[in-house]
Design brief:
Bound molecules: zinc ion
Mean pLDDT: 96
Low-confidence stretches: none
Shape: globular
Strand content: 15-25%
Structural class: alpha/beta
Radius of gyration: 22 Å
Helix content: 40-55%
Strand order of the largest sheet: 8-9-10-11-12-13-14-15
Length: 500
């Protein structure tokens, strides 16, 4: 572990990102006990014992906040190419199966290390264990975040139906032998899963490390009504946040309409889930009424443009969501589906995806809106009130970009270049709660060569352990890959009140 950090620190010589200004201006930042105590012009007064931090030639922006990712994806990156969401879900028992406790921690460490090296200081992690979440597994993931030094909300991602039970007609489309084989892929008993979450909530001890617990019934129709309402009940009783993938793919939107006769979000609302503590992931197929409901109830949306493109799910209407008053955060989604955990790339994609949908610039999101989404918007999704901005009283979660890096030569328009030109290669230092987690481009908390060795050993072992499952998934994928696009071809109208 690194040497203890000073309790007071004065950052001098940097310029400070401010979306209200075209170009960042010089400012000093006084940090006391991990919190920003004061911001002022160069020469800002500081207590005598404040340790100076030379930030010359750097641009400071608030730590980016990842509103949606999956730490189990860390060990499973780069496994699929032409995978839809449904093919990814079918592959999950292979690419995420057979994990020992140490693998769960290792996978989270890989993700946390990547995020902080790329300017991210907090994440909403939907972490899955099969057949149900465990206290040890959740503690292992929390320990990974604590050791790397990131803040997080970790939500056990749960269901009581298998993917094959959840998609209407899919079980019937399987030949007899495969239908029997997928029986083993059913999640454990719903009541046992709810009891496990309650047990985790009762023993959760990570809040002081900035690591909170959430609950994530994964996808509405992968859960029975009793189960999803049980999850919501546990969340309410323990003051935890809820997070669910809603209308991510067209297959889901169509399935929801067939199963419930209403949109998936309306169904979630019927179950009493939609409110200020609720985060919708993706929402590509939400309609205006869904987004109006989210705005009205204060629910947040985690926009994952990289994953939405990579899995062929479509384009989230960011402009429409913002106009309808939805609080939008930005996420990378898991490394098992969208490869990296780079919030700069996620911001750039969010901007580009909003722009590619229309030739009318009034339909586009502006860089300031995208930047706000990846900071304050995501903070809202995580339920963090003192993060995502640089102001007195906020946590000292700060990213220092090297203005001598090529992305900043020249430095014309700060926020535009953070969203469109930065790719994380300029990240020089990262402070979380005033603690230097990245210093001079190197992690102070993780030994990367050792992490690489551990990951290689785990990959080799898991490859062997999951070989049979891989063979089964390959057979199942033939059916999933033809059945689901057929379902997605069904007519589905996304209702918009305003002009198209
Ligand atoms: Zn996800």
């Amino acid at each position: 572990m690194p040497a203890p950090e000073p309790t007071a620190r004065i950052v001098r010589g940097a310029v400070l990102a401010d979306p209200a200004l075209r170009r960042a201006e010089p400012a000093d930042i006084l940090i006391v006990d991990g919190v920003i105590a004061a911001i002022g012009p160069p020469g800002l007064g500081a207590p005598e014992d404040a340790v100076p931090f030379d930030a010359a030639h750097t641009l400071v922006h608030p730590g980016l906040i990842n509103a949606h990712m999956h730490s189990h994806g860390g060990l499973a990156r780069g496994q699929g190419d032409k995978w839809t969401l449904e093919l990814l879900l079918a592959a999950a028992p292979w690419i995420g199966g057979g994990r020992a406790l140490a693998d769960k921690k290792l996978s989270a460490t890989i993700c946390a290390a990547e995020m902080v090296l790329k300017g991210c200081t907090a994440a909403y992690d939907l972490f899955a264990e099969f057949p149900r979440p465990t206290r040890d597994g959740m503690d292992a993931v929390a320990e990974a975040y604590a050791e790397v030094g990131l803040r997080a909300v970790i939500a056990p991602m749960v269901a009581d139906l298998s993917f094959y039970q959840a998609i209407p007609g899919l079980l019937d489309a399987l030949p007899d032998d495969l239908r029997k084989a997928v029986d083993s892929l059913r999640p454990g008993d719903g009541a046992a899963c709810l009891a496990a979450i309650e047990d985790i909530a009762r023993h959760w001890s990570w809040d002081r490390a900035g690591i909170r617990l959430g609950v994530a019934p994964t996808i509405p129709h992968h859960c029975t009504e009793g189960f999803v309402c049980g999850c919501a009940g546990i969340a309410r009783a323990n003051g935890l946040r809820l997070h669910t993938h809603v209308s991510e793919s067209k297959v889901q939107a169509v399935a929801g309409q067939r199963l419930y006769g209403r949109t998936l979000l309306q169904q979630m609302n019927h179950w009493g889930m939609v409110g200020p503590d609720f985060t919708v992931a993706h929402g590509v197929w939400l309609d205006d009424a869904d987004m109006g409901l989210m705005a009205e109830t204060g629910a947040s949306l985690a926009h994952n443009p990289g994953s939405n493109m990579r899995l062929g799910n479509g384009m989230f209407p960011l402009r429409r969501a913002l106009d309808l008053g939805v609080t939008v955060g930005i996420g990378t989604d898991g490394a098992n589906c969208s490869d990296n955990q780079n919030m700069y790339e996620a911001m750039r994609y969010a901007s580009m995806v909003s722009k590619v949908q229309s030739p009318r610039t009034e339909d586009w999101a502006a860089v300031e809106e995208v930047y706000r989404a990846a900071t304050l918007g995501s903070a809202h999704a995580l339920g963090f009130t003192n993060a995502g901005e640089i102001r007195a009283g906020a946590k000292a979660d700060l990213v220092f970009l090297d203005l001598h890096a090529i992305n900043w030569i020249p430095h014309n328009w700060t926020v535009n270049q953070i969203v469109h030109a930065e790719d994380a290669t300029s990240v020089r230092h990262v402070m979380i709660g005033g603690r230097l987690v990245v210093r001079d481009r190197a992690l102070t908390t993780v030994n990367l060569p050792r992490l690489a060795r551990e990951a290689k050993a785990a990959r080799e072992r898991l490859e062997q352990a999951n070989a049979q499952m891989k063979a089964l998934v390959e057979q199942l994928s033939v059916v999933v890959g033809s059945f689901c696009p057929g379902l997605a071809a069904a007519p589905y109208h996304v209702r918009r009140y305003l002009r198209e």
